[in-house]
Amino acid sequence: MTRLWPPGAATAVGSLPGADIVEALRLVFDELPGLPHLPELPARGPGAELIGRGAALLVDLPVEIAPSGWRLTARPGRDLRRAGDIMARDLDALQRQAEEYRGALKIQATGPWTLAASLELPSGHRVISDHGATRELAASLAEGLRLHLADVARRVPGASVVLQLDEPSLPAVILGRVPTPSGYGTVRAIEATTVEQTLRSVLAVAPFGTRAVHCCSSDVPIELLRGAGADALALDLAAVGDTRRDALGEAVEAGLSLWVGVVPATDGDISLESARPPVERLWAELGFPRGQLASAVVPTPGCGLAGATPAYARRALRVVAELGRWMSELG
What we know:
Layout: H1 21-31, H2 50-55, E1 63-66, E2 69-72, H3 78-97, E3 103-110, H4 112-118, H5 131-155, E4 159-166, H6 170-175, H7 192-203, E5 211-214, H8 222-227, E6 232-236, H9 245-253, E7 257-263, H10 272-286, H11 293-296, E8 297-301, H12 310-328
Parallel strand pairs: 3-4, 4-5, 5-6, 6-7, 7-8
Antiparallel strand pairs: 1-2
């Protein structure tokens, strides 16, 4: 598969510490020139975090903040306006920062199943507990993403926009681990075929070759994500056990790109020397030529960096960029 990003590119999962979007964008474009992204800054509060940011993309499904979290509501209000304003300011800043940029640009959004497992119906139950509401939410999200991607493409005409859907709740959805409002039970498991079909319908808003799905769980459903049409799998290498190596190898053989988290998302002692061995080991176990590593693998932090210090976040981006450059020198 032809990649939109150059061999040896590195990227980040999405979130960064701090509340200054201009500063965050400068950091991303300085450290990750091969595959920069629009960073998310949850420290700014409700509407800037994963669920509020995703809910703000929904079309004709307004939301508000309830004591237990984000909830669907009858009409738009202050909470939704705030989330929309945050996104609008982020896109304005991106447009200024990337005015002359040419290349792949990654945009993250909450996936349909994580959104359905997190948002509440007016009754207080999770959207995922209602099949009809879940279908409506997925269709609304797909339309919102279509508009969002078109807006980004208009603002940054030199960019080839890559869509990353964040699905941290996907394993819980499939395994029936999403809690009910009481906390004493769980929503019944959703059939894998239904999960795959819904995810495919949302990914389809992005062109072939631009669709990535991120899930940093140890139970990441690799085969399901392939079936849903993902072109890239973003996962935490430390969380994915040796038993998943065959599935990863089959994904690479099928032409998918692996975005592997190789440095921790929280502060620690990291360097190129510590990040390189896990990637070398993975590639050796998969049995592919070293010269193909840079074109098939994109190094990333293990997950979002919102919980890290600013100094560590900068160091993490620098290390994955160094790892990408080392990979490109192999072939």
